[in-house]
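haha ok so turns out i had the wrong file open the whole time. this is the CORRECT one, sorry everyone. sequence first:
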Amino acid sequence: MTTRSENRPPSEYSTLESLPVRTTDDVTFRVRVLPAPQPDAPLILILPAMAMKAKHYLALAKSLHAQGLSVATCDLRAQGESRPSLRDGKDFGYREMLEIDLPAIVAALRQRFPHAPLHLFGHSLGGQLALLFAAARPTAATSVTVIGTGTVFWRAFGPRRWVEALTDIQWIGLVSRVKGYWPGGVLIPGAMAGGVMVDWSLHSLTSRYRPKGSSLDYDRLLADMTLPVLAVSLEDDRLGPKTNVDFLVARMPAAQVTQWHVDGDSPVTHRDHFEWLADSPVIAQRVSEWIGSGSVSA
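then structure:
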C-alpha cells in the first residue's frame, strides 16, 4: 500500500542539482545550485533568515538565474535539509555557523564553480552571517548583499520601540538559556537553537558580536572590511527597520556600502520583512545590476 507522500511528485526545489557537504563535526548540508551556462558567471550564495527554509527562496534563486547568474542556496544548520535536525543535534551558536558551516559550504562551491566569483546574499540572520563571514575571510567573497538585515541592538529600534525590543529579545534569550532551545513564538515563530538565540540576545543587549566560543573579534573585522556591500532596507519591515540597517552600516566604515531603501516609490510592492520574496524578479534585477555596475536604480 502506498502512502499519500509516496504518490506526491517531487518538489521543484528537490530536483535541483545538489552538492553534499559534511562539516568537521558531522553536520550535513545539501547545497542546491542553478548553474549559468557560462562557467565564469558570478555565483550568488543565498543564506536564509532565522527559521526560514532555503526552499522558500526558490523564486529568488530562479530570478537571479534568469539574470545570467549561477545561484546556490542551502539551509542553515538544523534547518530544512540540514542534518541532524534541531531536536536530534547538539546545541550551537553563531560560531559554528560562521567558522565551521560556511567554510565547508563555500569550499564545496569553489570546487563546483572554480572560475566563478562568489557573491553572498543574506536575508535577516543570513545577512548577519554573510557580513561576519566575509569580514573574517576577506578573500572568500567578492561582495555581500543583505536584505532585512540590521543590528538587533535595542537602542537602534528608536525610542518608541526600546521597551518592546529590550523585553522581547531578552525574553527570547532567557527562555533559550533555560530550555536549551527556542520553541518559537514572540518575534521568531519557528524553533531555533538555544545557542544562536543567546548569541543573538547578547548582541541585542550590547550591540557587539561576541559569539560564544569564538576567539575572533568580529566587531573589529567588520570595521576593517573593505568589500562592496549592498544593504537593502524595507519600508514596512518591523524586524529590520531602516534605523537598524543604518546602525549596522555605520559599523562598516571601510566598506564600499550602497544602500537601497525600498519605499512607496519603488516597483517592489511587498515591503515586509518576509513578503518581499513575492517581488523576487525586481529584487534580482536590481541585485544583478549592482553586481555588474556597483550602483542600483531606485
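The chain has nine helices and ten strands.
again sry for the mixup
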